[in-house]
TrEMBL record, chain A:
KW RNA-binding (keyword) present: no
Keyword Zinc appears in the UniProt entry: no
Domain ABC transporter residue range list: 5-214
Protein name: Heme exporter protein A
InterPro entries: AAA+_ATPase, ABC_transporter-like_ATP-bd, ABC_transptr_haem_export_CcmA, P-loop_NTPase
Automatic annotation (TrEMBL), chain C:
Membrane topology: Single-pass membrane protein
Pfam families: CcmD
Protein name: Heme exporter protein D
Matches recorded under NCBIfam families: cytochro_ccmD (TIGR03141)
Annotated region described as Disordered, given as residue ranges: 54-78
InterPro entries per the UniProt record, alphabetical: Haem_export_protD_CcmD, Heme_exporter_D
Membrane-spanning intervals of the chain: 20-39
Coiled-coil ranges per UniProt: none
Role played: Required for the export of heme to the periplasm for the biogenesis of c-type cytochromes.
Record family assignment: Belongs to the CcmD/CycX/HelD family.
Protein's organism: Halomonas fontilapidosi
Automatic annotation (TrEMBL), chain D:
Transmembrane segments: 21-44, 56-84, 96-117, 129-149, 161-181, 201-221
Gene Ontology annotations of biological process type: cytochrome complex assembly
Protein name (Swiss-Prot/TrEMBL): Heme exporter protein C
Gene name for this UniProt entry: ccmC
Keywords: Cell inner membrane, Cell membrane, Cytochrome c-type biogenesis, Membrane, Transmembrane, Transmembrane helix, Transport
Taxonomic superkingdom: Bacteria
Cytoplasm is among the record's keywords: no
GO molecular function: heme binding; heme transmembrane transporter activity
Protein source organism: Halomonas fontilapidosi
Compartments in which it is found: Cell inner membrane; Membrane
Main location class: membrane
InterPro entries: Cyt_c_assembly (IPR002541), Cyt_c_biogenesis_CcmC (IPR003557), Cyt_c_biogenesis_CcsA/CcmC (IPR045062)
NCBIfam families in the cross-refs: ccmC
Residues annotated as domain Cytochrome c assembly protein: 13-184
Membrane topology, as annotated: Multi-pass membrane protein
Length: 214, 233, 78, 246
């Protein structure tokens, strides 16, 4: 089965100002797409639209050549989204956090897999501590462990490199590249410069700032 | 490796996991469970002090007092129903899961009722003694509160979902939700009143049950729609 | 006619205060909403005219070619 | 049919068509209210029990009708907005709310004033007055919720959901308040439930009700037109319109 996320004539207006307009996107399997632009250029908004969270926009989204409205359930079953906030409960341990995500994603309950996922993001020994006692970077790693734990082809990651140390950044970059090689696809915003590769594509936002009527 | 996924029909697993997660979370923040109960007891303490310690007078107003105080106590904990999930980003993950959102929202509301409405219902007879509530109405008080507070949790969750994205949602939440609570209050307090007078209470309880049935069948969809709106900012 | 004189009409059989208070508040609110709606509309039109003048002024001082292309952009939009 | 709905949903088209409809409703409202007032105040016979204080009915009942109808209209508009994404419906809903609250207040105030000669007190927990008071709080909730959001789209959708939730609750609230009232005050005289009213009494009432409805429609058309200008101020047709006016 192929993998294709398309957007046609996407436009989004905020406070009488176009964040972007007439944006056409075609994202395929095996690609890493980096959304670039200055602060306030609508990167997060675009990712939220593309992950089906925002309804206040113009244009059409297609998932595998079907309009998103009709394939939403199917789309969500293939999506892994990581937002600004890590989505990690401070009062729960990393293991408990992952267990909830596993169930939410419809994956079978698998404790060894959760240990392995936490080990892959360098959290061995922290599995049973309340996440609130971990550092910001470690909490972010708990969230990133979902990439390992829950197999999904489409990753939409909003600033995943925030608060991660240098080793972690390198490991994450490697993980993104490996995902693309395996036939997955990654949509990412980041201030961190990704290493050039044939899989990498860039979308630039924020030439705009135009008047909404133009 | 087959990357592409068909949607899986495991809503039950997700609902159970959400129930369990919220229960564990609330048990780790026990003060949040205890606060409404302490508030309930405090408000009930204020009334004899503010009005009169006369047992006859207190007995006359006890059903309404207990119901109003329990209703306000349940309202107190409503704001936090989705707030922490919203703040730490788990709410958007909940919305993006391929499971039916109304069912997941219902699981969260069920936990709220289990740890707020039900304890309040169990505690109310104790406070009833302090207000010299006539004998014979204690069981009805607890039962009507248990039944009614489930509707309150469901209706209140709509308001909580609508205001979760607002920085000062708390006061607005009470404004939105309290008028909608009135039918539950009328039949809940009415049931206790009827028990005191020796009338049949089955009609009252049946209506409370009907209200709960309506709330159960409509509120989850309204909560889900409201959460989707709130996540948009 | 249910009343013999104007004074009887105003007195409303001793209930004049209540009748006229209720009617008066109702009338005031109805008239008030109309006045408010008219004021709102006038303010909006004034604001729009100011914007239009500013846009004209702006267009006149800037390059003619760009203003033409803007116009075309409008046409496609609508 | 679909084409018609979507045409109606286009702000530009609505702006044009409402301009033609609006004067008729203003005229109807003015004529009906003037005739109804004169008839109700001066010509209708006095009530055999309440005397002339009963003439308050001619503002109390139309206001109460309108208060409830506006809430229902708001919910219907919200539903249309949510399902078909027709923004004009939401603009109309936003513009109706303050009038609805005002009418609820009129019904409450006139009811309270009426209470003095009838019950000898300014406030009675009468079933109708209590329901009206709750309705007023529901209006406050919808207006406050709409004002609380920074994003206009979220505000519109949240207000629509709340209006729909409210409209499902209104009959339940009304029924339970009626039940509660009969339980606590079994044999009190209710001001507005009068079985047989002679024609000279109910005809002006009917005229007033129609006049109030016309007023509501006219005002909503007018304010929706203003709201269109406000929200579409950057659109080409609105700019051209502003140019023509100046």
């Amino acid at each position: 089965m192929s993998l294709r996320l398309q957007a046609r004539k996407l436009a989004c207006e905020r406070d009488d100002r176009w964040l972007f307009r007439d944006l056409d996107l075609d994202i395929h399997a095996g690609e890493i797409v980096r959304v670039e632009g200055p602060n306030g250029s609508g990167k997060t908004t675009l990712l939220k639209i593309l992950s089906g969270q925002l309804a206040d926009f113009q244009g059409e989204l297609y998932w595998n050549d079907h309009p998103m409205r009709r394939t939403r359930q199917d789309f969500l079953a293939n999506l892994l989204y990581l937002g600004h906030a890590p989505g990690v409960k401070a009062a729960l341990t990393p293991l408990e956090n992952l267990a909830w995500y596993q169930a939410l994603a419809g994956e079978p309950d698998d404790e060894p897999a959760r240990f392995a996922a936490l080990a892959s993001v360098g959290l061995v020994g922290f599995e049973d501590l309340p996440a609130g006692q971990l550092s910001a970077g470690q909490q972010r790693r708990v969230a990133l462990a979902r990439l390992e734990l829950i197999p999904r082809p489409l990753w939409v990651l909003d600033e995943p490199f925030t608060a991660i140390d240098r080793d972690g950044v390198a490991a994450l970059e490697g993980r993104l590249a490996a995902h693309a090689r395996r036939g997955g696809c990654v949509l990412v915003t980041t201030h961190h410069e990704l290493a050039d590769s044939p899989a990498l594509r860039r979308i630039r936002l924020g030439q705009g700032g135009d008047d909404a009527a133009l | 490796m087959p990357l592409f996924r068909e949607p899986e029909g495991s809503a039950g697993v997700a609902i159970r996991a959400t129930l369990k997660r919220d229960l564990v979370l609330m048990m780790r923040r026990r003060s949040e469970v205890l606060n409404p109960l302490v508030f309930f007891a405090l408000v009930i303490t204020l009334f004899p002090i503010g009005i009169s310690p006369d047992p006859e007078l207190l007995a006359a107003i006890a059903p309404g007092l207990l119901w109003v105080a329990a209703l306000l106590a349940a309202l107190l904990s409503l704001d936090s129903l989705f707030r922490s999930d919203y703040d730490d980003g788990s709410l958007e993950q909940l919305l993006l899961s391929p499971q039916p959102l109304p069912a997941l929202a219902l699981a969260k509301v069920a936990v709220h009722w289990l740890l707020t409405g039900l304890p309040l219902a169990l505690m109310a007879p104790l406070l009833g003694i302090m207000l010299s509530l006539p004998a014979g109405s204690y069981a009805v008080l607890a039962l009507s509160l248990a039944l009614g507070s489930a509707s309150l949790s469901l209706i209140g969750a709509i308001g909580a979902a609508l205001t979760v994205g607002l920085s000062r949602g708390g006061v607005l939440l009470s404004l939105l939700v309290l008028p909608l609570y009135i039918p539950v209050l009328i039949f809940g307090a009415g049931a206790v009143q009827a028990a005191i007078l020796g009338d049949g209470v089955s009609a009252h309880l049946a209506i409370l049950g009907a209200l709960l049935a309506v709330a159960l069948s409509l509120a989850p969809w309204a909560i889900a729609a409201s959460l989707r709106i709130s996540i948009n900012g | 006619m249910a009343f013999d004189s104007l004074s009887a009409f105003l007195a409303m059989g001793g209930h004049g205060v209540y009748v006229w208070a209720a009617w008066g508040v109702t009338g005031l609110l109805l008239v008030g909403t109309v006045i408010h709606a008219r004021a709102e509309r006038r303010a909006l039109l004034r604001d729009l005219r100011r914007r239009a003048r500013r846009a004209q002024h702006h267009g006149a001082s800037s390059d003619v070619a760009t203003s033409v292309s803007h116009q075309e952009g409008h046409a496609r939009e609508s | 049919m679909w084409a018609f709905i979507h045409k109606l949903g286009s702000p530009k088209w609505f702006y044009a068509i409402s301009a033609r409809l609006q004067p008729w409703f203003w005229v109807a409202a003015a004529v009906l209210i003037v005739i109804g007032s004169a008839w109700g105040l001066a010509f209708a016979p006095a009530d055999y029990q309440q005397g002339n204080s009963f003439r308050i009915i001619y503002v109390h009942v139309p206001a109460a009708f309108l208060a409830q109808s506006i809430f229902v209209s708001m919910a219907v508009a919200g539903f249309i907005f949510m399902v078909w994404k027709i923004k004009v419906a939401d603009m109309a809903a936003a513009m109706m709310a303050p009038l609805g609250a005002a009418m609820t207040f009129v019904a409450l105030f006139s009811g309270a004033v009426w209470g003095v000669p009838t019950w000898g007190t300014w406030w009675m927990w009468d079933a109708r007055l209590t329901s009206m008071l709750i309705l007023l709080f529901l209006y406050f909730g919808v207006i406050a919720l709409r004002g609380a959001f920074t994003s206009r789209d979220s505000a519109s959708r949240a207000a629509s959901v709340l209006a729909m939730v409210g409209v499902i609750n209104i009959p339940i609230i009304k029924y339970s308040v009626d039940w509660w009232y009969t339980l606590h005050q079994p044999a009190t005289f209710s001001v507005t439930s009068r079985p047989a009213m002679p024609m000279e009494m109910w005809a002006p009432l009917l005229i007033m009700v129609l006049g109030f409805y016309s007023f509501f429609i006219a005002l909503t058309l007018m304010r929706t037109r203003s709201e269109i200008l406000r929200r579409e101020a950057n659109k080409r047709w609105v700019r051209e319109l502003a140019g023509e006016v100046s």
